[in-house]
DNA sequence: ACTGGCACTCGGCGCGGGCGAGTGCCAGTC
DNA sequence: GACTGGCACTCGCCCGCGCCGAGTGCCAGT
């Protein structure tokens, strides 16, 4: 159990280290924060904190830096999310309001997050699984070729080609379109499969094959690319990892290239409110010296996707968390409006 | 005018420097290439090449490295595009064949290019200006709200919301859809505006406002986001810029973030066959120590967009050019099929 | 429990010398 | 006249040295 003052000391160490990027010593601490005690006392506290694994020395006779465990304690108990100021909020809203379509919303969100946090931003496209169908459109591009367009309530549009086993008449297509829409419009993706299961039976024998092709393509679209896409930005901010350069930056860039890794990363974050993964808490090895702050966002109350930032473990957690949360909130609003 | 042997020397210098990343001296040159002359002679040639500005010494008493001008000569007169091997071609084709839609084609192309060249890949989405309309779809999502979906012959799908001044009936909408398609299907984007100009007049007065809104949104879509999108990948390869690290990598990352810069970069490249911009030939300052190899690609014979790579001026030009050209060719094929 | 004092550690930095790759020049040869 | 071997010279790189100072741990004193 750590005394109140020791927690204060830890907090001061984290704040100073984040600010200066240099190991912080006992003297500097007492000067910059009025802890009311002498450096010698602080030294004792630091020894105890080190003993417990919250801070460490890079070399003997250097100052201390927080460990992952130290940051964890800081985030959990010593810091509050720093809310955005009023002007900042307005700026966020204005910037996002200019978006013309979903791609644009995501692109703007990425830029915004990267700028606000000066870190690498990651934004997942609204997932399909938790979305609902707004409309399904079928277009005959050729006698035996149909384009399937799926529009979701999050504004996402997916299209697929369907090669039909037999030509399909315009009337049949219209019929199928109508019946399909009456069944699935407004429904959750997860519910769709059983809702359309018996649809082929209600058509003439000669059309059943075609109907089945269309349906199977639809179902594929629903599951296949689920949560698959995302957008990243602000990689130039990685160069501010000034310390040991190529060593840290390379694996991070590689991880960012691997969408699979990123999606898993966001996916792991359970807490819909806000998740912070610090250093080695990230399973992917290349990100062991970074922290990931992520949060869910969604058009309604419910989260349909995640967004977040990746930065050095030595980051301004309260500020970053504030920015991430604020952006998520406004993106949710935008999606709800569109 | 440079003698044949001096050109040989320049070629050897470029090849060695690209291989070793270290300034190359006269002795090493004679050992690795059988030029048939002694180091002393080569030294004289090098002095002449330096005089002409094709090579330079980083410091007195170090080897020589090619200048931008030297690379330019190398690319123009001393090297041939290195064709891909048969297995490589097959691999490219197989990899691209798996794509399910346009996004996927572009994404796969980026990955492929980055892997093949071990550099940063940039792929522009097929441009709208040179595309033709395959289909226009109108969906009533609410009484006075229409979704406009535009499908191009390059497989691109754009969608927009249209807020109508007045509710529009299902019949009117179907009518508009039919007339619109009969006029613009198969037509070039550039021709569309005048083709639809008089369309509102043929509708009842009460619907004209709505028709006009739909049309203006359509026209906006055609011009507004023209050539706007692109995808990049392989940024992790930047870490192989081992030399002077943060200095070179930062501006490059920044340039890559700025889509505008990249689009301008690709746009400048005039020659549809293949353009190589070396070092300071790039107008954007941050890319002064990189080279850009770009080429047009398209579904037919005509180029609808560009793709390319960005790498250090010290790159394997023949190999890179071969890879870029081959990928562009296969992407063109894939687009033509879909 | 806190403080001031003190001896100790060790990374960073600047200095200086040796090493070697590479050069330019020159006199000699085919 | 073109090429070659030889030679003196230049510098950047590397290594070891010693100083400096920030920071520490410990201990005796309040």
Automatic annotation (TrEMBL), chains A, B:
<dbReference type="InterPro" id="IPR036390">
    <property type="entry name" value="WH_DNA-bd_sf"/>
</dbReference>
<dbReference type="InterPro" id="IPR036388">
    <property type="entry name" value="WH-like_DNA-bd_sf"/>
</dbReference>
<dbReference type="InterPro" id="IPR021153">
    <property type="entry name" value="HrcA_C"/>
</dbReference>
<dbReference type="Pfam" id="PF08220">
    <property type="entry name" value="HTH_DeoR"/>
</dbReference>
<dbReference type="InterPro" id="IPR002571">
    <property type="entry name" value="HrcA"/>
</dbReference>
<dbReference type="Pfam" id="PF01628">
    <property type="entry name" value="HrcA"/>
</dbReference>
<comment type="similarity">
    <text>Belongs to the HrcA family.</text>
</comment>
<feature type="domain" description="HTH deoR-type">
    <location>
        <begin position="34"/>
        <end position="62"/>
    </location>
</feature>
<dbReference type="InterPro" id="IPR001034">
    <property type="entry name" value="DeoR_HTH"/>
</dbReference>
<feature type="domain" description="Heat-inducible transcription repressor HrcA C-terminal">
    <location>
        <begin position="103"/>
        <end position="321"/>
    </location>
</feature>
<dbReference type="InterPro" id="IPR029016">
    <property type="entry name" value="GAF-like_dom_sf"/>
</dbReference>
<keyword id="KW-0678">Repressor</keyword>
<comment type="function">
    <text>Negative regulator of class I heat shock genes (grpE-dnaK-dnaJ and groELS operons). Prevents heat-shock induction of these operons.</text>
</comment>
<protein>
    <recommendedName>
        <fullName>Heat-inducible transcription repressor HrcA</fullName>
    </recommendedName>
</protein>
<keyword id="KW-0805">Transcription regulation</keyword>
<keyword id="KW-0804">Transcription</keyword>
<dbReference type="InterPro" id="IPR023120">
    <property type="entry name" value="WHTH_transcript_rep_HrcA_IDD"/>
</dbReference>
<keyword id="KW-0346">Stress response</keyword>
